[in-house]
Write a structure and sequence with these properties.
- The two termini are 17 Å apart.
- α9 links the parallel β4 and β5.
- The chain has 9 helices and 5 strands.
- Strands 3-2-1-4-5 form a 5-stranded parallel beta sheet.
- The chain is an alpha/beta fold and 224 residues long.
């Protein structure tokens, strides 16, 4: 409840001449000018700081940018506590998915695996490379073409050309017509501020799961 109150308060516009408004205006200006020396901030400005392309860059955690100052800014950016926790989330998610996929393969000779909003697909690719391709039919979806392109590149680098990719809207009911053994939603529902949409997506995913199948999802009730 406190998180919801905080969120509602933060949505209110700041007074034009307040110090906070001046501060955030300055930060935005810096991000869009000097910040572009950092490759990470430049990607965020182009694709969005919560995009799959951005998270893919954060996962790799390799500072780069224009000149020494750009690399320095990028390292400070990647060391932000929020991004550190995102990288930890990937570790925990990968461990959970390894366990879930193993358990499903103990139940069935062949399983179907779906990611609703894969971004760059880093955690999916890391998990699926440990299992025989003929036993796991995997489809990774995202509604942004740049995320699908990034995921395709990541899969090719890992020699997992058998993975299937599809540009699809996770909030479209028509995309929930098949049954899956494992469905994943990571870094997705927590960035949607419309509870109705999240509930609809959750119920649609649930309808695609038979008894014994598994939905793996992440939430972020508080951002540091």
């Amino acid at each position: 409840m406190n998180s919801r109150i905080t969120f509602d308060n933060l949505k209110q516009p700041l007074p034009t001449y307040s110090l906070k408004n001046a501060y955030y205006s300055s930060v935005r200006a810096i991000l869009k000018t000097v910040g572009n020396l950092s490759d990470g901030i430049r990607l965020g400005n182009k694709f969005g700081f919560d995009s799959g392309v951005m998270l893919d860059y954060v996962y790799k955690n390799q500072a780069s940018g224009k000149f020494f100052v750009g690399k320095l800014i990028d390292r400070l950016y990647l060391n932000a506590v929020g991004w550190k926790r995102i990288r930890l989330r990937k570790v925990l998610l990968t461990e959970s998915l390894m366990k879930v996929v193993s358990e499903q393969l103990n139940r069935k000779a062949r399983i179907r695996y779906l990611d609703l909003a894969c971004g760059g697909g880093e955690y999916d690719i890391e998990v699926l490379k440990h299992f025989p391709a003929p036993r796991v039919e995997a489809e990774l979806r995202d509604y942004k073409p740049e995320n699908i392109a990034q995921a395709l590149n990541n899969a090719e680098r890992s020699h997992q050309n058998h993975l299937r990719f599809k540009q699809a809207d996770a909030f479209d009911d028509d995309n929930y017509r098949e049954k899956w053994d494992v469905i994943v939603s990571s870094g997705f529902w927590e960035i949607i501020d419309d509870d109705r949409l999240v509930k609809l997506c959750l119920l649609n995913a649930a309808r695609c799961l038979d008894p014994g199948s598994v939905l793996v999802f992440t939430i972020q009730p508080h951002h540091p």
